[in-house]
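**User:** My hope is that you can spare some time for a protein that puzzles me. As I understand it, each token names a local backbone shape. I would be glad if you read both lines and explained how they fit together. The protein I mean follows directly.
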Amino acid sequence: MLRFKSLGSGSSGNTTLIEGRSGTTTRRLLIDCGLGIRTIAERLGEAGNAIAQIDAIFITHEHSDHVGCMEKLALRHGIPVWMSHGTYTAIGEPELHGLLRIAHHNEAIDLGGAFEALPFAVPHDAREPLHLRCSDGSHHVAVLTDLGHASSSVIPYIAGCQALLIEANHDVGMLQSGRYPAFLKRRIGGANGHLANEQTGELLRAINHPQLQRVVAAHLSAENNRPELARVALAEALDWSPDDIDIAYQRGGSPWIQVG
């Protein structure tokens, strides 16, 4: 069985917890550490977990809203950390005292108890960004919070998933008319920036299938998006009701989502 919960998602920090259960064994993976160690501890506690129960950390890329407290968290609790070599180089190659594990595109990570994570490359303005498709062998969930466009290379890694936590960063009209400087608008709206609601909808339309149960919109911009806009765009692409789209909020994240 798989279940996942965003602990918080947005420009101020991103962290997602995924659990894989097989028999009496439960393995827990923390994707990104962008919220700060105290906040992560508090939100894990609210979710019925503790930092000491985390079996591994995966860092998707080097931006501060994803790396956050990774080094302190890993060293304090002895948690192995997976990331690409490019990400490790980009964060300055910190000494992790044997806890570093290098992840590679399309090479599965065995997390134990039939719980597996498959990293895949995404278009984003980072050194070697990787996002994840997680599986217990029967059920699949993909987490992809930062990608600049709906690349066809991403589609095979999210196709067939029963659940997705996927970026819906901005509304194009709000970004264009907003107060951000021109260079930042170009960066966000560029091919290696962040997905607009409509782009996320296009990606969902391309991979929609009858077994897709849950979609969580993540990394919403507080300045350039609104949950109701993201819900409508994603629901229209899937022919769902807007109420069927979950939101990962900056404060509080998402509810637990059970897959299967």
About this structure: The longest strand covers residues 15-22. The chain has one domain: 2-254. The two ends are 7 Å apart (CA to CA). The domain at 2-254 is CATH 3.60.15.10 (Metallo-beta-lactamase; Chain A).
